[in-house]
Amino acid sequence: MATPLFLKRTLLAVFLLVPIVNFGVFLLPGGDRQFANMVSTRVDAAGYAFSIWGIIFAMMIAFSILVQRLTESSKSLTAATAALIIAGIASIFFVPISLYASQTIGWLDIVLHLVALIAALVFLRRHCHAVSVVNGRWSFVGPSMYCGWISAATLISTALMLQENGVDVSDQIATGIAIGALALITTIASLMTWSRDPVYGGTIAWALIAIGVQQSAFPLIRWTAWLGAAALTVFIITFMILNRSFYAAADALRLPKK
Predict the structure, then answer these.
(1) Residue 103, Cβ neighbours under 10 Å: how many?
(2) What is the mean pLDDT of residues 150-179?
(3) H-helix segments, 71-102
(4) Does the N-terminal or the C-terminal CB of the chain have fewer CB atoms within 10 Å?
(5) β-strand partners of 133
(6) What is the number of other CB atoms lying within 10 angstroms of the CB of residue 197?
(7) Is residue 112 within 8 Å of 120, Cβ to Cβ?
(8) Is the pTM of this model over 0.85?
């Protein structure tokens, strides 16, 4: 089953538009103060970490271009393409939402992002299992990195949404929740890495390092983040030594046998 041409074209159009909208936010009224009024949380990351968006956008454009070159496909790849289109549209809408809407609406947008990206990765994995004929190069780096970064962003967005809705806890409880959240996302990233997706794990490690840098006022949170990043890094290196192939950067595109 070939992926419909309009889906391929839509995927490319969306991810060409995504960086234009995100990097062109300063052209919108109030765009120069996009996050100026955002309150701090105990899972905030250092600002430099967000430079990863440039890499993610570039990899998603590359992924979209590769999809255009396919003459054959699978139902799973078609479903993954549709899910990525939804994620891209959510990214576009997040720009005006972050400027003019509440943190709760922003959180709903981030959750939609995350659900769509998880679905895309699931369908891409099914595609890998379903096919067997080598035909050209392939890469899942973009979707894996995108999903990893949105997973980390969901922590921040959830904290902001709870604060906006009046959820107030003591300092000790807030610190405990932050540590638990960081431990959870480290565990998920480890499982994803062991499931042959070290790019997802590496993206989470990058986020954890940045969270540790930002949380200098909370040593327990800082060191939890850094220890998680260190453990993930060792885990990823071990995986790469023991395994030659992984979903996030497969050697070839495989298509169903005729």
Answers:
(1) 21
(2) 89
(3) 75-100
(4) C
(5) 255
(6) 26
(7) no
(8) yes
Closest C-alpha among 152, 161, 171, 148 to residue 211: 152
**Amino acid residing at 68:** Q
Residues making up the chain, counted from first to last = 258
Rounded Cα distance between 163 and 22, Å, is 25
Categorize the per-residue pLDDT at 248 as very low, low, confident or very high, splitting at 50, 70 and 90. Answer: low
Q: In DSSP terms, which residues pair with 134 in a beta bridge?
A: 254
Query: Distance between CA atoms of 99 and 97, rounded to whole angstroms?
Result: 5
Distances (CA, A) of 236 to 182, 190, 203, 211, 212: 18, 8, 11, 19, 19
Tokens representing residue 209 in the block: 């390092």
Residue type, 173: I
* Residue type at position 194: W
| Residue 93, burial from CB neighbour count under 10 angstroms (0-12, 13-18, 19+) | middle
How many angstroms separate the CA atoms of 23 and 170, rounded?
37
Nearest to 145 by CA among 170, 111, 120, 110: 120
Residue 67 tokens, joined:
């999809």
Q: What does the pLDDT read at residue 203? A: 96
Q: How far apart are CA 83 and CA 77, in angstroms?
A: 10
